[in-house]
Amino acid sequence: MLEADNVWFTLLTMNTNPIHFDAEYAAGTEWKKPLVDSTFTLALVTGLSVQDVSEHGVNLGWKEVRLPAPVFAGDTIRAETEVLAKRESQSRPGFGIVTVRTRGLNQRDEVVIEFERSIMLEL
Protein backbone atom coordinates (compact mmCIF):
# COMPACT_ATOMS: atom_id res chain seq x y z
CA MET A 1 0.00 0.00 0.00
CA LEU A 2 1.46 3.33 -1.03
CA GLU A 3 1.33 6.58 0.89
CA ALA A 4 -0.32 8.21 -2.15
CA ASP A 5 -3.11 5.58 -2.12
CA ASN A 6 -3.95 6.51 1.46
CA VAL A 7 -3.82 10.26 0.88
CA TRP A 8 -5.93 10.05 -2.29
CA PHE A 9 -8.56 7.84 -0.65
CA THR A 10 -8.67 10.04 2.44
CA LEU A 11 -9.16 13.16 0.35
CA LEU A 12 -11.67 11.56 -2.03
CA THR A 13 -13.83 10.52 0.91
CA MET A 14 -13.46 13.98 2.49
CA ASN A 15 -11.97 12.56 5.69
CA THR A 16 -10.39 15.58 7.37
CA ASN A 17 -8.68 13.69 10.19
CA PRO A 18 -4.99 14.72 9.95
CA ILE A 19 -3.84 11.35 11.34
CA HIS A 20 -4.17 10.04 7.76
CA PHE A 21 -2.26 12.65 5.76
CA ASP A 22 -0.31 15.04 8.01
CA ALA A 23 3.05 13.48 8.94
CA GLU A 24 3.87 16.23 11.42
CA TYR A 25 0.57 15.78 13.24
CA ALA A 26 0.91 11.98 13.16
CA ALA A 27 4.43 12.22 14.64
CA GLY A 28 2.82 13.44 17.86
CA THR A 29 0.58 10.37 18.19
CA GLU A 30 1.37 6.97 19.69
CA TRP A 31 1.99 5.59 16.17
CA LYS A 32 4.49 8.32 15.19
CA LYS A 33 3.40 8.17 11.52
CA PRO A 34 0.17 8.46 9.51
CA LEU A 35 -2.38 5.67 9.74
CA VAL A 36 -4.04 4.30 6.62
CA ASP A 37 -7.70 5.36 6.55
CA SER A 38 -9.68 2.45 8.03
CA THR A 39 -12.38 2.69 5.35
CA PHE A 40 -9.64 2.23 2.74
CA THR A 41 -8.54 -0.90 4.59
CA LEU A 42 -12.15 -2.15 4.56
CA ALA A 43 -12.48 -1.45 0.83
CA LEU A 44 -9.11 -2.99 -0.01
CA VAL A 45 -9.65 -6.22 1.93
CA THR A 46 -13.19 -6.56 0.59
CA GLY A 47 -11.81 -6.09 -2.92
CA LEU A 48 -9.09 -8.67 -2.37
CA SER A 49 -11.78 -11.24 -1.51
CA VAL A 50 -14.15 -10.53 -4.43
CA GLN A 51 -12.60 -12.86 -7.01
CA ASP A 52 -12.85 -15.87 -4.68
CA VAL A 53 -16.01 -15.01 -2.77
CA SER A 54 -18.45 -12.61 -4.39
CA GLU A 55 -17.48 -11.76 -7.96
CA HIS A 56 -20.95 -12.54 -9.36
CA GLY A 57 -22.90 -11.75 -6.22
CA VAL A 58 -24.41 -8.75 -4.50
CA ASN A 59 -22.92 -7.57 -1.22
CA LEU A 60 -25.73 -7.19 1.34
CA GLY A 61 -23.63 -5.53 4.03
CA TRP A 62 -20.89 -5.78 6.60
CA LYS A 63 -21.11 -6.35 10.33
CA GLU A 64 -18.76 -6.83 13.22
CA VAL A 65 -15.99 -4.77 11.60
CA ARG A 66 -12.94 -4.76 13.89
CA LEU A 67 -9.58 -3.06 13.44
CA PRO A 68 -7.23 -4.79 15.90
CA ALA A 69 -3.97 -3.35 14.50
CA PRO A 70 -3.08 -0.24 12.49
CA VAL A 71 -2.13 -0.19 8.81
CA PHE A 72 0.68 2.04 7.57
CA ALA A 73 1.90 3.06 4.12
CA GLY A 74 4.29 0.37 2.92
CA ASP A 75 2.36 -2.50 4.50
CA THR A 76 1.46 -5.47 2.33
CA ILE A 77 -2.08 -6.65 2.96
CA ARG A 78 -3.60 -10.01 2.08
CA ALA A 79 -7.07 -11.43 2.74
CA GLU A 80 -8.44 -14.77 3.82
CA THR A 81 -12.11 -15.71 3.99
CA GLU A 82 -14.06 -18.42 5.79
CA VAL A 83 -17.65 -19.39 4.95
CA LEU A 84 -19.77 -19.22 8.11
CA ALA A 85 -23.25 -20.03 6.78
CA LYS A 86 -25.28 -20.52 3.64
CA ARG A 87 -29.00 -20.70 2.97
CA GLU A 88 -31.52 -20.28 0.20
CA SER A 89 -33.03 -16.82 -0.08
CA GLN A 90 -36.53 -16.62 1.38
CA SER A 91 -37.57 -13.70 -0.82
CA ARG A 92 -35.78 -14.46 -4.11
CA PRO A 93 -36.23 -17.93 -5.59
CA GLY A 94 -33.09 -19.19 -7.30
CA PHE A 95 -30.78 -17.19 -5.03
CA GLY A 96 -28.84 -18.00 -1.89
CA ILE A 97 -27.26 -16.01 0.92
CA VAL A 98 -23.71 -16.79 2.00
CA THR A 99 -22.23 -15.30 5.18
CA VAL A 100 -18.45 -15.09 5.38
CA ARG A 101 -15.77 -13.80 7.75
CA THR A 102 -12.86 -12.09 6.06
CA ARG A 103 -9.60 -11.16 7.73
CA GLY A 104 -6.96 -8.80 6.42
CA LEU A 105 -3.40 -9.54 7.49
CA ASN A 106 -0.22 -7.55 7.06
CA GLN A 107 3.25 -8.82 6.13
CA ARG A 108 3.85 -9.81 9.78
CA ASP A 109 0.65 -11.95 9.76
CA GLU A 110 -1.02 -9.51 12.16
CA VAL A 111 -4.78 -9.21 11.71
CA VAL A 112 -5.42 -5.58 10.78
CA ILE A 113 -9.14 -5.92 9.99
CA GLU A 114 -11.81 -8.56 10.42
CA PHE A 115 -15.44 -8.45 9.37
CA GLU A 116 -18.46 -10.50 8.40
CA ARG A 117 -20.49 -9.88 5.30
CA SER A 118 -23.45 -11.44 3.58
CA ILE A 119 -23.59 -11.98 -0.16
CA MET A 120 -26.55 -12.90 -2.36
CA LEU A 121 -25.64 -15.30 -5.16
CA GLU A 122 -27.61 -16.94 -7.93
CA LEU A 123 -27.90 -20.70 -7.39
What is the fold's blueprint, element by element?
Layout: H1 3-12, H2 23-27, H3 38-53, E1 58-66, E2 78-88, E3 95-105, E4 111-122
Antiparallel strand pairs: 1-4, 2-3, 3-4
Description:
This protein is α+β, with helices and mostly antiparallel strands and 123 residues long. The protein has one domain (3-122): Hotdog Thioesterase (Thiol Ester Dehydrase, Chain A, Roll), CATH 3.10.129.10. It is 25% helix and 35% strand. It contains 3 helices and 4 strands. The chain has helices at 3-12, 23-27, 38-53; strands at residues 58-66, 78-88, 95-105, 111-122. The chain has a 4-stranded antiparallel sheet. The longest helix has 16 residues, at 38-53. The model has no long low-confidence stretch (mean pLDDT 94).
Task: Provide key terms for this protein.
single chain, 123 residues, alpha+beta, Thiol Ester Dehydrase, Chain A, 4-stranded antiparallel beta sheet, 3 helices, 25% helix
CATH architectural group = Roll
Average residue-wise pLDDT: 94
Question: Which CATH class is shown?
Answer: Alpha Beta
Tally the structural domains.
1
Report the sheet with the most strands, covering strand number, pairing sense and barrel closure. 4 strands, antiparallel
CATH evolutionary superfamily = Hotdog Thioesterase
Low-confidence stretches: none
> Strand pairing plus helix content: what structural class?
alpha+beta
Q: Distance between termini?
A: 36 Å
- SSE order, one letter for each helix or strand: HHHEEEE
Number of strands: 4
> What is the radius of gyration?
17 Å
Number of helices: 3
Can you list the strand order of the major beta sheet? 1-4-3-2
CATH topology type: Thiol Ester Dehydrase, Chain A
Q: How much strand?
A: 25-35%
What is the helical fraction, as a range of percent?
25-40%
Q: Given the C-alpha coordinates, what overall shape results?
A: elongated
